[in-house]
Design brief:
Largest sheet: none
Radius of gyration: 15 Å
Number of helices: 3
Helix content: over 70%
Order of helices and strands: HHH
Distance between the termini: 43 Å
Shape: elongated
Length: 94
């Protein structure tokens, strides 16, 4: 269980790092190709994060309170992710 929690935390840190990089680029860059590259990299990190969270969720079995807490955290992260991608699209439409 601890290994799955550690994997989830590590994946979240990597995702957060990419999200922050992309957010900073939105404010500081006009290089559309660089933004697209960072967005793609963020999507990859998001897939890794989702897989880690899913494994952790499955391992919680009948611990419904822990499952609920994890789902709430995932929802918050997904909102941040979506908001950042909307900013990219708004600032730099295709």
């Amino acid at each position: 269980m601890q290994i799955l929690e550690d994997e989830s935390i590590s994946a979240q840190r990597l995702w957060r790092k990419q999200l922050n990089k992309l957010s900073n680029l939105i404010a500081d860059s006009t290089n559309v190709d660089l933004l697209k590259s960072r967005r793609s990299f963020l999507e990859t990190k998001t897939e890794i994060l989702n897989a880690a969270k899913e494994k952790l969720y499955d391992s919680l079995e009948d611990n419904y309170d822990a499952k609920k807490e994890l789902l709430m955290k995932c929802e918050t992260l997904q909102c941040e992710h979506s908001n950042t991608l909307r900013k990219v699209t708004k600032e730099f439409p295709k």
